[in-house]
Design a protein that fits this description.
Layout: E1 2-8, H1 16-27, E2 31-37, H2 43-52, E3 57-60, H3 65-71, E4 74-75, H4 77-82, E5 87-90, E6 96-99, H5 102-113, E7 122-126, H6 130-141, E8 146-150, H7 154-164, E9 170-173, H8 175-179, E10 186-191, E11 209-217, H9 226-233, E12 238-241, H10 243-258, H11 265-272
Parallel strand pairs: 1-2, 1-3, 4-6, 7-8, 7-10, 8-9, 10-11, 11-12
Antiparallel strand pairs: 3-5, 5-6
The chain binds NADPH dihydro-nicotinamide-adenine-dinucleotide phosphate (NDP).
Amino acid sequence: MDRYAVMGNPIGHSLSPLIHKAFAEETNQLLLYSSILVEAGEFPLEVSRFFAAGGKGLNITVPFKKEAWELADNLSAEANLAGAVNTLLKDQEGKLQGHNTDGLGLIRDIKSNYNCIIEGKKILVMGAGGATRGILLPLLRERPESVCIVNRTLSKAEELAQLFSKYGAVSACGYDELSAGEAKKMDWIINASSASLQGELPPMPGNILSSDAVCYDLMYAQDETVFCQWAQGAGAMKVMNGLGMLVEQAAESFYLWRGIRPTTQKIIQGLRK
Ligand code: NDP
């Protein structure tokens, strides 16, 4: 049976085995998908062991996405710019291909599952870490009016704004600038910071949302994140979390490996429950 796995540390919490098992059942694909705990310093060895033993494809999660990017022989445009790889497979010549499906997963969740549009919208992206790097190119391809990256460490936001400026109107700012003077109204706020993980909310002005604003927290949790709570209170028209993105990025990986696109609605609904 074809073997796939997710590698990370920690890995016990990963929903990927459950999601890929559901995809395989739905599409009648015979495959095994497991999770592999990898110790620091062992990642390149574990990857070569996995493929040498006939493994077909890997998902990569925290903290190895950058190492996977370094290890890949060929990179997709998204992975190359993101500086991070979440999907690995061997091509027909035996070369290791690296992809980043996080951004595509976000866009698919927003467009297909929530029927929302990004084109022509003013977007604020919070955070300038790996997740932001991964979503910027797919986001800019949707032709928003503008994307502003706000980050605690301004220099990181500025670096990303410069890197992605050739793909659209991208700027950078600090949280203090959001609150200074009359806040610029945003149509979208995407929280790609990890503040929600710590139960924290960066200093957001209450009057920043446009009348039909949409807010999306990349983090997903059983209880509403602090960011989602803030968005509700600030009057957002729609508030979403990253569970759909998680399932959609997995579906993109599955498609890269198997050439078949699974449906995602049922599993997203199941996981929400
Ligand atoms: P990184 O560690 O690479 O980056 C974290 C970012 O958050 C940095 O820009 C950091 O700012 C900022 N930050 C952290 N704490 C705070 C705070 N208290 N206030 C303000 N800013 C803060 O993380 P990732 O980019 O990999 O992940 C970000 C989030 O995205 C996580 O919650 C993760 O779970 C989620 N994610 C979800 C996915 C999904 O499929 N749904 C996929 C990938 C990620 P600074 O630069 O100043 O340190």
